[in-house]
Amino acid sequence: MEWSSKLELGIQTVDTQHKNIIERIDRLEIALDSQATSVTYPRLKEAHEFLESYVGSHFREEEEMMEKGGYPDLAAHKLMHAKFENDLAKFRDDLDHTGLITHATAKLVRYLSSWFIDHIKNEDPKYVPYVK
Asked: 114-125: per-residue pLDDT in tens?
């Protein structure tokens, strides 16, 4: 999964945050696919902590911009964010309980790649006219 200008919304702070998130997901994917690099429990745990913290901040910033801009579908967008955060917590809990690092990483990377690309391409553009 790589950042592409096709994912840009034209809001510099949001685009930078999206790029940082996608780069972190890409690093996880590379580590998972690499024969030379093994994904360790601490490394995966750190990735979860980063994502939970960084993505949470990013979502709150986006939601604040949408609120200030009067975005009419803010409540629905917030629900998508909340579901993602709950799903991410479930992935962390699964890792903590199973210890299946490679399996947990593969599931996480597939979910993150799919969710973020879909969300950035299909959901986020809806609020852009309200916050620009």
From this structure: 999 999 999 999
- Residue 6 carries which side chain, given as an amino acid letter? K
Q: Which two tokens stand for residue 82?
A: 């909340």
**What tokens appear for 15 in the block?**
């685009």
Instruction: Judge contact between 48 and 24, C-beta under 8 A.
Output: no
pLDDT tens, 17-76? Answer: 999 999 888 887 877 766 545 566 777 777 778 888 999 999 999 999 999 999 999 999
Structural domain including 57 reads: 11-131
Q: Exposed, middle or buried: residue 48 (CB in 10 Å: 0-12, 13-18, 19+)?
A: buried
Is 6 part of a structural domain of the chain?
no
